[in-house]
Specification:
This protein has about 130 residues and is mainly β. Helices cover about 0% and strands about 35% of the residues. The chain is globular.
Amino acid sequence: MTPIADGLFTEETPPRLIGGKDRETGRIVFPCPTSPTFEPVPLASEGTLWSYTVQRFRPKSPPYAGPEAFAPWVVAYVELPGQVIVEARLNDVAFEDVKVGMPVRFAPSPLNPDLSDSPYIPAYVPAGDAA
């Protein structure tokens, strides 16, 4: 699995997102800035859906580099407890079943599922009873 950007995921199995912890304040951000004031930290693999929207139209290219055949997806804002809120796709759930507060877990997905060598992007899927 090749991430869409270097330093985005840990190399463990299963992978986790890599955030940045400010060395002075302890504040965590995502993604990890390339600055000596931040140290990389693996983020929690499970969180809670904080908010969301549905992307119903194909974004402009560039920067969008996904498949030509567009299919809507859920843009999720996931709260990782005590860390940060991250933006990522939410997969494996019908739009009508998405609920703020639902538990989710990190599950990177290919940007373009039709390509065998597609880079992977941050994504979540329902967890626990929501799965």
